[in-house]
Write a structure and sequence with these properties.
It is built from one helix and 23 strands. The chain is mostly beta strands. The strands form four sheets. Strands 8, 10, 11, 13, 14, 16, 18, 20, 21 and 23 form a ten-stranded parallel sheet that branches. A six-stranded parallel sheet has the order 9-12-15-17-19-22, with no helix packed on it. It has a four-stranded mixed sheet with strand order 4-5-6-7, with no helix packed on it. Strand 1 and strand 2 form a beta hairpin.
């Protein structure tokens, strides 16, 4: 009750203490729209836009934080201009082009990070997720600080990744080449991975785990037990 969420560029006040089951713009029982006002939390600022008169569309927008976003329609009714986190000082220097969507939700991520392709990119996640699976990373950096159960079937090359987890971890069926990957976690199982020309470091507080059925070629696999108890 009394919390505020942002949805499709409007702010909504919770008036019942319940999220409900519909978006706040159509849930009139639990949410109340906050009218535009400088004193109500909205940020008023100028931006450079490209406008197409024939369609009445804004084609692109560039803000004072050097973010540049081209219009692209996603699978949702909103387009990329609406999905982007405008007005947030920690979101800066992003270029969202070629039909891409960049969305930051004000909610906790509790499912998976899966089937993403990162090329010359960076992915940072601070939420709790169930698994990191089937991602492709090329010339990229990724950092996860989460309570994660599995890290499996990922393909990582010429990249750097760091994973911190409080749970027992299953690291399996990954192919990691010419990369540096560090895991910090309670120990689970490291199995059926291919480490090729890479530096793999695992820091763990537990001795109750297994390292088996891995292929290590021109690589260093270092498992360090932080707690000898």
């Amino acid at each position: 009750f009394g919390d505020v969420c942002i949805w499709s560029n409007f702010m909504y006040l919770n008036i019942t203490g319940s999220n409900g089951f519909a978006p706040p713009d159509v849930d009139f029982v639990n949410w109340q729209v906050i009218p535009y006002s400088v004193t109500k939390g909205y940020i008023l600022e100028g931006a450079a836009v490209e406008y197409q008169q024939s369609t009445n569309w804004i084609i692109s927008r560039r803000d004072k934080r050097l973010n540049f976003v081209e219009r692209a329609t996603s699978v949702k009714p909103q387009n990329s201009l609406n999905c982007f986190s405008w007005g947030y000082d920690l979101v800066e220097l992003n270029s969202i082009t070629l039909g891409s969507i960049f969305e930051i939700c004000n909610s906790v991520l509790t499912t998976t990070i899966s089937k993403n392709t990162l090329i010359n990119s960076e992915l940072i996640s601070r939420g709790d997720v169930g698994s990191v699976a089937r991602n492709t990373m090329i010339n990229s950096f990724a950092g996860w600080n989460l309570s994660c159960n599995t890290f499996n079937e990922n393909f990582i090359t010429n990249s750097t990744a760091g994973v911190t987890s409080n749970n027992d971890f299953i690291i399996s069926n990954n192919t990691i080449s010419d990369s540096s990957v560090t895991w910090i976690n309670n120990f689970g199982t490291i199995s059926f991975n291919q480490f090729l020309g890479s530096q793999i470091t695992v820091f763990t507080n537990s001795v109750n785990g297994f390292v088996r059925y891995n292929t290590v070629s021109n690589s260093v696999l270092n498992v360090s037990i932080l707690n000898d108890g």
